[in-house]
Amino acid sequence: MEKIKQYKYIILIGLLILGFAFYWFQIRPAQIRRECYNTIPDYWKQAGAEKAPVFKNCLLEHGL
To answer: Which end of the chain has fewer surrounding CB within 10 Å, N or C?
Structure first.
């Protein structure tokens, strides 16, 4: 128990870094893809969103 008290700030910083990494690499890209998918017209959604130039441009604008 004493060691946990000694390293509580290091543990806290580690948890914050892990939380930020999870957000940056998992949640953020999913939100960007969902937002870009909602911006493309319906006829491209039927043909396949990955082929839509609007979808690709939106992903590039948002940094994916």
So the answer is: N
